[in-house]
């Protein structure tokens, strides 16, 4: 029996969606609603390979969901809204509460709201999106799929910070990570490609986009993740600084009397690729400037590559070896320039790199190391929406006692 499942990723002013027929995993449609709350909101949807785009005023997420529901009916994606059986909602921060996806109830909503301080740009927006869909489709099985759930298998030495232990016990300060749905997808997809059991996967997965994280996966389970207490930690990102000496915060506070919000703005929105280059948070713009000899653009890439190499090599040692490295997300899938510069510096851990394969692998799935390489290197476009749909379908089956 086919089931219609929707994957939803709600941002503060956006709403991404995909509709699947399960268990076939057939994509019926996908799209994005952008600039919600502004006069020139954009509604985009793809049906049968054809992209449709409309500009109109969409006041809030409730209105965005109504427009989406009407469009699904108009385009005959569904004949009736009750045909939508399940919705999976992406939630960035699930804390220590959730190690798997769960059906939504008021207790789950309360916990996600409680954790909003750890993901202030994501959790509140996700709850707004959920409530809008819950109002529109109250009989649907709603599932929360947590970015942090995949990392609940990390050993304590990899998630406890060397702060007073009471801060972990009382305030739950620990490493949580992010992008777990993506890292989980990469692990499962590479197991399919290599025809290996999940519990034999010892790999390093690199989700390199505007936000970026690197994970060590040992025996198919998360072992370490670069992002920390919040998505600010880890490697350098588009506008985020990643790991820095925490005394810098104290120094800036004392010297310039920054407020917490001002410091948060500097670290999250004015640092990283944008902060070093002074050009853009988009690596494509910075790469163009670097090719023209811009010194700060060149420095930006030197720092970026150095941070990625340091993390990959460190995780290799931490796990006692690995069999493969995987690149994904906007930069990981499309920047042959960054992949080449990272891989050339990883010969020490067995990477033999193929320039030709790397150049051909733009937004495509495939191997970019040589056949002789001890450490295999792959590009795999991520598919978080499919992972969300799979989990939502699993919860729906459980609710309906379907084998």
TrEMBL record:
Substrate binds at residue 90. ATP binds at residues 16, 207-211, 282-284, 330-334. GO terms for molecular function: acetate kinase activity; ATP binding; magnesium ion binding. Its EC number is 2.7.2.1. Its main location: cytoplasm. Pathway: Metabolic intermediate biosynthesis; acetyl-CoA biosynthesis; acetyl-CoA from acetate: step 1/2. GO terms for cellular component: cytoplasm. The record marks 179, 240 as: Transition state stabilizer. Mg(2+) binds at residues 9, 384. It is an enzyme of class 2 (transferase). It is found in: Cytoplasm. Its cofactor is Mg(2+); Mn(2+). It catalyses: acetate + ATP = acetyl phosphate + ADP. The active site is at residue 147. The keyword Ion transport does not apply. SUPFAM superfamilies: Actin-like ATPase domain (SSF53067). Mg(2+). Can also accept Mn(2+). Keywords: ATP-binding, Cytoplasm, Kinase, Magnesium, Metal-binding, Nucleotide-binding, Transferase. Catalyzes the formation of acetyl phosphate from acetate and ATP. Can also catalyze the reverse reaction. Homodimer. Belongs to the acetokinase family. PANTHER family: ACETATE KINASE (PTHR21060), ACETATE KINASE-RELATED (PTHR21060:SF15). This is Acetate kinase. It comes from Catenisphaera adipataccumulans.
């Amino acid at each position: 029996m086919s089931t219609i499942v929707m994957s939803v990723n709600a941002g503060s002013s956006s709403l991404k969606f995909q509709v699947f027929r399960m268990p076939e995993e057939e994509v019926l449609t996908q799209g994005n609603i952008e600039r919600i709350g502004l006069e020139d909101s954009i509604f985009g949807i793809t049906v049968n390979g054809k992209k449709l785009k409309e500009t109109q005023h969409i006041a809030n997420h409730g209105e965005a969901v109504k427009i989406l529901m009407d469009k699904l009916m108009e385009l005959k994606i569904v004949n009736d809204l009750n045909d939508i059986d399940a919705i999976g909602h992406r939630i960035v921060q699930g804390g220590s509460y959730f190690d798997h996806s769960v059906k939504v109830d008021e207790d789950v909503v309360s916990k996600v709201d409680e954790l909003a301080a750890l993901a202030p740009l994501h959790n509140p927006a996700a709850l707004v999106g959920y409530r809008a869909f819950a109002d529109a489709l109250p009989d649907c099985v709603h599932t929360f799929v947590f970015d942090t759930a995949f990392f609940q298998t990390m050993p304590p030495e990899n998630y406890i910070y060397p702060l007073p232990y009471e801060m972990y016990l009382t305030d739950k300060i620990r490493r949580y990570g992010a992008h777990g749905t993506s890292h989980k997808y990469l692990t499962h997809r590479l197991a399919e490609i290599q025809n290996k059991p999940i519990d034999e996967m010892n790999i390093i997965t690199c989700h390199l986009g505007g936000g970026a994280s690197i994970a060590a996966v040992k025996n198919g389970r998360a072992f370490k993740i670069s992002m920390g207490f919040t998505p600010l930690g880890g490697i350098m990102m588009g506008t985020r600084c990643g790991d820095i000496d925490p005394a810098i915060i104290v120094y800036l506070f004392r010297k310039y009397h920054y407020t917490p919000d001002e410091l948060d703005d500097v670290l999250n929105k004015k640092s990283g690729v944008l902060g070093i280059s002074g050009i853009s948070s988009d690596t494509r713009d910075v790469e163009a400037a670097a090719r023209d000899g811009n010194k700060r653009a060149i420095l930006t890439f030197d720092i970026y590559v150095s941070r990625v190499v340091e993390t990959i090599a460190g995780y290799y040692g931490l796990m006692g070896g690995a069999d493969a490295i995987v690149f994904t997300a906007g930069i990981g899938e499309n920047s042959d320039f960054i992949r080449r510069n990272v891989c050339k510096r990883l010969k020490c851990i067995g990477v033999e790199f193929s320039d030709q394969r790397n150049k051909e692998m733009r937004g495509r799935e495939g191997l970019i190391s040589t056949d002789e390489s001890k450490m295999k290197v792959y590009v795999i476009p991520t598919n978080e929406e499919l992972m969300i749909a799979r989990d939502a379908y699993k919860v729906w089956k459980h609710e309906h006692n379907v084998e």
